[in-house]
Design goal:
Structural class: alpha/beta
Number of strands: 6
CATH superfamily: NAD(P)-binding Rossmann-like Domain
CATH topology: Rossmann fold
CATH class: Alpha Beta
CATH architecture: 3-Layer(aba) Sandwich
Largest sheet: 6 strands, parallel
Strand content: 5-15%
Shape: elongated
Oligomer: single chain
Helix content: 40-55%
Strand order of the largest sheet: 3-2-1-4-5-6
Number of helices: 7
Order of helices and strands: EHEHHHEEHEHEH
């Protein structure tokens, strides 16, 4: 499962749900060396606001986790006070983010979170398009609240690689993974 966490994509990343999901993922990935979070949206103008949203919440996250950050950066002589450590952590987090408008830019993704409009055809077409570029063993998660997962799986031709993974609104107020879903993910995708 660890190798899946090194390249993640969020489809519909600039929307309300997509941005919250992106934030939760980024908070988990911020300490991973070489991790990439690809944020896909059809509206490039929304990326400025999305980047500010991520920066603001990563800063708050770093402030709450300053003791862990001090331990993480203990070898960095240039990072002495909390402000410098927080800034370095936020910059490291934002450095792993790619803002894209083309599904081809999701090349190599292993975990794909979908949070686009509630329309079966659009979701299925988008998931199928991303699957062309994602890794063969990519795992897909849909945030749909009204479309049965088996219908979306069939329409997108993902062959038992799609899981319904619904986030409450706003996503940033809940944990990304609790123990039960994590165990389900491991047993489902790790052989």
């Amino acid at each position: 499962m660890d190798r899946h966490w090194h390249h993640i994509a969020v489809l519909g990343a600039a929307g309300k749900m997509g941005s919250g999901i992106a934030l939760l993922l980024l908070q988990e990935m911020v300490y991973m060396k070489g991790a990439t979070l690809t944020l896909l949206d059809t509206n490039p103008a929304a990326f400025t606001e999305l980047k500010e949203y991520l920066k603001h919440h990563l800063t708050r996250y770093a402030e709450r986790n300053i003791n862990q950050l001090r331990a993480k950066y203990r070898e960095r002589a240039d990072l002495v006070d909390n402000v410098d450590i927080i800034h370095a952590s936020v910059e490291q987090g934002l450095d792993c983010v790619r803002f894209v408008t083309s599904v081809a830019e999701c090349r190599g993704a292993r975990l794909i979170f979908e949070a686009i409009t509630e329309n079966v055809s659009i979701k299925a077409q988008t998931l199928n398009s991303v699957d062309t570029y994602a890794e063969q063993d990519a795992c897909y998660f849909s945030n749909t609240s009204s479309i049965p997962i088996h219908v979306l799986e069939k329409e997108s031709n993902l062959k038992k690689r799609l899981i319904g993974f619904h986030f409450y609104n706003p996503p940033a107020v809940q944990q990304l993974l609790e123990s039960f879903p994590l165990l389900m993910l491991k047993s489902t995708f790790v052989h």
